[in-house]
Amino acid sequence: MKPGDAIQAGDDRGSPAAALAYLVVGPLAWAGHLLLVYAPQAALCAFRLTGTAAVETSIVRAMVIGVTVLAASAMIAAIAAPRALARLLRATAFLEGGNGRFMIAVMRLLAVLSLAGVAWAGSAALVLPPCPVLR
Amino acid sequence: MAFDERDLPNPLPRPEGELAELERVWATPKGWRIVTAVNNTVIGIFYIGTAFFLFLVAGLLALLMRTQLAVPENDFIGQPLYNQMFTVHGTTMMFLFAVPAVEALGVMLLPQMLAARDLPFPRLSAFAIWAYVIGGLVFVSTILYDLAPAGGWFMYPPLTLKEFSPGDNADFWLLGIGFIEISAIAGAIEIVVGTLKTRPPGMSLMRMPIFGWAMLIFAAMIMFAFPAVILATMMLEIERSFGWPFFTAAQGGDPLLWQHLFWFFGHPEVYIIFLPAAGLVSMIVPAMAQRPLIGYRFIVVALIATGFFSFGLWVHHMFTTGIPSLSLAFFSAASMAVAVPSGIQVFSWIATMAASRGRFRITTPSLFVLGFLVIFTIGGLTGVMVALVPLDFQVHDTYFVVAHFHYVLVGGMVFPLFATFYYWAPMVSRNMLSERLGRWVFWLMFAGFNVAFLPMHLTGLLGMPRRVWTYPADLGWDPLNLLSTVGTYVLAAGVLLFTIDLVVRFRPGQGQDNPWRAGTLEWLPTDLYSTRSIPLVTSREPLWDQPGLARDVAEGRYFLPGTLTGGRETLVTSPVEARPQYVIRMPGPGWPPFLAAVFMASFFLLLTVKAVVPAVACGVLMIVFCIAWAWSLDPGPGREVDIGGGIRLPTYMSGPRSHSWWAMVVLMFVAASLYLAWVFSYLFLWTVSPEAWSPHGAPALPAWRWPAASVLLLLAGSGLLLGAQRGLPRRGERAAGVPWQMLLALACLAAALGIELAGHWGSGLRPTQNAYAASVYMAVLLFGQLAFALAILGGFVIARHVTGRLDRERRVSFDNLALLFHYTVAQSLLGLALVHGFPRVVA
Fold this sequence. Notes:
The complex is a heterodimer of chains A (about 140) and B (about 850).
Chain A: H1 3-6, H2 16-23, H3 25-47, H4 53-80, H5 82-88, H6 99-122, H7 124-127
Helix pairs in contact in A: 3-4, 3-6, 4-6
Chain B: H1 18-25, H2 40-69, H3 79-113, H4 122-141, H5 169-197, H6 210-242, H7 255-289, H8 296-309, H9 325-337, H10 339-355, H11 364-387, H12 389-395, H13 399-428, H14 435-461, H15 478-505, E1 526-527, E2 530-531, H16 542-545, H17 549-555, E3 568-573, E4 580-586, H18 591-608, H19 612-631, E5 641-644, E6 647-649, H20 659-688, H21 705-726, H22 737-762, H23 771-802, H24 812-842
């Protein structure tokens, strides 16, 4: 075998940005989740916008659970359908050849870890009041 | 995958004089001109040497502090000096030792592991290193003349505001550390681009050594974490010097803003330090076990996950600040979740050792790795404990926390670093370090560390607070403190023994020939030019899986066996699949990076002592030397070259394939992080004191026509630059309109900045009025900072056009200007929308 058969000069088969986005879709969803649950909750508590603790609790709880379900659904979809995700992100070229299994495995494992993080944080809304401090 | 020997890319015998020419081109300057050297192995040794020296200094301070704490009511050191000592100890260990040491290892080891001749911006590395050396040494010396800061390594306001910390001490921290962070960011840019663009052909991401992954994530984390603390230091210094009240509660500011910004940097910082160390361990364990790492994919996943999760933990340093319980829960969950990827790595290393079936060699590096596993795991477990909010309430600011973070940082970074010293010293030294002494060093350090820090968990649980210079007798703390002090001296004896061994045996020069029988590329035969030829990689452990590789590489049978352009060069490959793209012509030794670093350090240090005129002169000289340095870059298209195997590559590249374009994109991410930190600050201060916001607590905003004019000018500037881009002349020609278009674009930018400033000033708003006003002017300042950089870059590009160095093909400098310009416009449009829109919406 000649080295030239193993290596070609030129660009990657697809966009490196697409490959990166594909790999870290889970952690990106985790980061989005943290931002979307923390920022509105902190702002709502800072301003006591509704003026009623019970209403605030309901709003914050619904918001946290809604965002958590949304983020978790996105991650479950990515884990279940890695090729569809690749098509969505235009990263299918990287799933061909030897790199494909690596890319899919890394993406899925990261999504699983992120899913755990999202569920862990989101479930707090079920047991804790949104605004009071603990001491 | 094996190749038929006859089909390797380049045939034997190699042309006469090829090797001699390579040696000549890559020769290191001799004598005092050594400071002009840019070879990664040379400057890497300076870098690590300085970091190790600062580690010794900070360690000596720790020893003195432990001596003070050995017995109650001791008067060995007074409180003011003690406060300076723990501040300098923490600051030096975190900013001047840990991050630079791992960055230095990146500079030193990455090109060898990637079989690149050097990283893509060797002068940038040299600049970063010299800035660090000068700044670091000056900062640490402040302890000798009572000028050291005393506010703790995290410098919390209001303690560090002018009112409570008068004098220049705190300014040395703010300006000194601020500019050393610039050096760290310069190094990070080098590492991101180097890891993604200078891997050898065939080394796709899935074949990259784990240390490469770790350094890539390390550098990406620096890009997003450091800007937050840079903004915080700018704001605190501005408040101290000019009275803009970001952190003064009475004027609508909030000291907690500092804590948010500092810990948004500070917690990732722990992983910024740990991940490269973990990467080093992932390289050492397989070599000692003589088998591939088990769970390569899992470790890659763990590194990436840790990189992300570490940005969701910062509030766990603020559990006791009165934040709502649900917010605490979000960050408590993330703090526990981050333990999972760390655990994955630990289990992978243990599995690799176990799978070697008794072949795991117990050498000095292995001992340090095993010590790391024990200590870091204990630190990780106490980390999960302090991630639990109720427990944190109890142990916050006690010696329990001191014990925890020393277990994490010393276990997670110092022990792997010592393993690294013993493992990789033979790569750059004629002698190995002593195995016999090494075992003594390990056991002294391991025993000393545990004797020193294990009791501190109890001291903390018994209620001893951190940062106290003495304590009363009979609180039950006395024997534990004495034990900790004894342990510290034992630990210091280990470090001293290592230092002696280093002085006696370490001799930079031709390294050993793979003494550990490792499988990765840094153990290929090397010289100043790195490897004689650049291999084609077909596995993760090429030296194990590609028989004869070392010999073939050393004989020049792989790619780029000599110098094809008559100068320094290396191969650029594609970022994911590592396909050869072009050959970089790299700059060699030179004075400009060294002198630019000297004058940058002087600029910041003189500014600290309020010597404004000499500081400005140094700033101007720094810019002059940066321009002199950049002038020789962007050489323009050259002939195509044959690197071997029938592969012909260009020797010049512009646009998105170019390493320079990638570096500018990385820089834009850094700038964007800085700006987003400001956006966060603006919104955070609003939640704290909405009453300070316009129109109730400050003058009404300027009429809409003011921001509208700025928007139009910004868009016009971008349009003009796009026009200039289309109008770039053919090679050898000039286009008279191009410099004018660039100049007009810059004028539009300056006018937009001026209008924004005039609008607020005209409305009666003054930056010292309240936190809202300070935030508004901070946005103008950040805009002005980029506009200033663009003015210099623009002048530089215009000068290149005028002198015939800019055309449709030779355009890297123009591309960089255009990227930064359009980014600045986008950032400014966001800023205008927020500053002029948000107060109107919430009013």
